[in-house]
Design a protein that fits this description.
Strand order of the largest sheet: 6-9-10-22-21-20-17-11
Distance between the termini: 51 Å
Radius of gyration: 30 Å
Largest sheet: 8 strands, mixed
Number of helices: 16
Structural class: alpha+beta
Length: 590
């Protein structure tokens, strides 16, 4: 192999343009394609910017011989003159498709074994992640990480221009309850004690407001030990921020302008402000989700009143128990769905705890439904009028307690949109979802838990309900939803120590246990805490939106798989017994 000694790269591959014809340039990169046609060798040299065609001609026999020894993914350096491609040689698919470099010097800086995967993206996920450093050579992934860099820089510049200070917070913190499971780090110095990796900098950024910094932001790594899915990883990145002396409108306003700047500069899309807002209850009732995708219809509708006196036992029992009967009218879908496909949709709603899916199809030859015999003609007519049913429509009905009905029909709605390609992928719908419930009841723990986190402030007009009907208390919380994905969220915080203690009591903590877990925060609140609030964006999710990716893995350099392992390094792994002893840990034998 040769060295770079005496040779300096003068440009990235795609920085070379027609204006440089006749000039001598030096490029370095990988041989993405080699075409040996005897008297000529064509090399497509690739670096992070893209491809450039290099031609090695027979006039230099030694150079031509060397070029014939170059194979795919060899690392090469080439010096030569830029010239226009000959007639018929223009490649419009390449940014540099009108020019080429005629090699005068070629060095092979390193060879490459045959790759264990093709760089066309068609390899399986497992092998792509095992050889992630090779997978990252693909232009799609390199583009994604460049977009990530651009977004990170844009965020830093924007928040700096708006008076925010970037302040780092600790990675080794105290484990606290609520939220997902913590990743724990054993302490060598303090036997039997553990740090936790932060799920967010929540308490630290609130303390920074108490300290008087007024506006804080941070591009920060966070960690949650939770089950993975398309938009989740155990370690992820947030654009995190907090502001003092603000209300909901202040936080939303500064962040709407950030989103406007992001869409304008990165996608060339002009957002009209203010963005729409929708309260949580409306989102659930219309879309069955607190992160509604509003790019298509198929909205949920309540037909409880239509069947409240029904002889159909399933409906009657659920209504009597305080539940509801709700439906989606699939306009024009009756002739597009076979009975087998309708049965498959029934299995979809069962994944979300619904006991079954009732359906009605209206075709030219009449009405078909397994529940028609249980409904009177008046009830069927009332359903049709409420849902505005016409010939060709397919109606899907779920009856249960509201949370099950919303979850089941909300996900059925998304499944129908995917199945029938109802989503305009070139459209961006943004909206704020507001007035979330402050609390939700955990059947597993038999207590109320915080919908967001225990530092979220109740709405002022609902404060008196905390003692009597805490389930009805709304929070000063807000999420930004983009195309059905929660891209970020936040709240106005509790800043009064008495209210914070009360919140902990509602969550089932005794005063002693609350002070044991959060004493440092509750003590701090006694020293003059300003009203404050903030939010955090999922940086990875924003990059997914900007790049059109379906998986968070494609916007993270070295992601984990479903079981939170990294296939490339085989992490997590066993450690030496000596290390365990230093950490005062003894493994239990299974």
């Amino acid at each position: 192999m040769e060295t770079m000694k005496g040779m300096k790269r003068t440009a990235l591959c795609t920085d070379i343009t027609e204006s440089m014809i006749g000039q001598s340039v030096t490029v370095m990169g990988w041989a993405a394609k080699v075409r040996d046609i005897g008297q000529l060798v064509f090399l497509d040299v690739r670096d992070r910017s893209g491809l450039l065609q290099v031609v090695v001609e027979q006039s230099d026999e030694a150079l031509l011989k060397k070029a014939k020894g170059v194979h795919i993914e060899y690392v090469v350096a080439v010096t030569g003159k830029v010239r226009a491609r000959g007639e018929g040689g223009v490649n419009t698919a390449m940014k540099t498709g009108t020019i080429e470099v005629v090699a005068e010097e070629l060095r092979i800086l390193n060879a490459s074994k045959a790759l264990p995967l093709q760089l066309d993206g068609n390899a399986g996920d497992e092998i792509r992640l095992k050889y992630r450093y090779l997978d990252l050579r693909r232009k799609e992934l390199q583009r994604n990480l460049m977009v990530r860099h651009q977004l990170t820089k844009l965020a830093r510049d924007y928040y700096d221009e708006n008076g925010f200070l970037e302040i780092e917070t600790p990675m080794l913190t105290k484990s606290t309850p609520e939220g997902a499971r913590d990743y724990l780090v054993p302490s060598r110095v303090h036997a039997g004690a553990f740090y936790a990796l932060p799920q967010s900098p929540q308490q630290y950024k609130q303390l920074l407001m108490l300290a008087g910094f007024d506006k804080y932001f941070q591009i920060v790594r966070c960690f949650r030990d939770e089950d993975l899915r398309a938009e989740r990883q155990p370690e992820f990145t947030q654009i995190d921020l907090e502001m003092s002396f603000v209300d909901i409108d202040d936080v939303i306003s500064v962040n709407e302008r950030f989103l406007q700047k992001m869409f304008q500069e990165m996608l060339g899309i002009e957002l009209t402000l203010p963005l729409p807002r929708m309260c949580y209850q409306e989102a659930m009732e219309r879309f069955g989700s607190d992160k509604p995708d509003t790019r298509f219809g198929l909205e949920l509708q309540d037909i409880t009143a239509c069947v409240k006196n029904s002889g159909f036992k399933v409906f009657a029992d659920n209504i009597a128990a305080g539940g509801s009967v709700r439906a989606i009218n699939g306009k024009g879908l009756a002739d597009k769905l076979s009975r087998k496909e309708i049965d498959a949709l029934g299995e979809v709603v069962k994944l979300f705890k619904a006991k079954g899916l009732a359906w009605i199809t209206v075709k030219e030859d009449g009405v078909k439904s397994p529940i028609a015999k249980f409904l009177s003609e008046e009830e069927m007519q009332a359903i049709f009028e409420t849902l505005q049913v016409e010939t060709g429509d397919a109606v899907f009905i779920v009856s249960d307690k509201d949370e099950v009905v919303f979850d089941a029909l909300g996900n059925l709605r998304l499944e129908l949109a995917r199945k029938f390609d109802l989503i305009d992928k070139n459209r961006y719908d943004l909206l704020w979802v507001t007035e979330f419930p402050l609390l939700e009841y955990s059947e597993e723990e038999q207590r109320y838990v915080a919908k967001h986190h225990p530092f979220t402030s109740p709405m002022d007009e609902d404060l008196e309900l905390l003692d009597s009907t805490p389930q009805n208390v709304r929070a000063k919380a807000y999420d930004i939803v983009i195309n059905g994905m929660e891209a970020g969220g936040g709240s106005i915080r509790i800043y009064n120590s008495e209210l914070q203690e009360k919140m902990f009591r509602v969550l089932g903590f005794t005063k002693e246990s609350a002070w044991e877990r959060f004493g440092y925060l509750m003590e701090a609140f006694q020293y003059g805490t300003p009203p404050h609030g903030g939010m955090a964006y999922g940086l990875d999710r924003l990059v997914m939106i900007l790049t059109g990716c379906d998986s968070i893995r494609d916007v993270i350099a070295f992601p984990k798989v479903q079981n939170a392992s990294e296939l490339m390094t085989n992490a997590p792994s066993q450690v030496d017994e000596t290390q365990l002893q230093e950490l005062h840990i003894k493994l239990r034998e299974e």
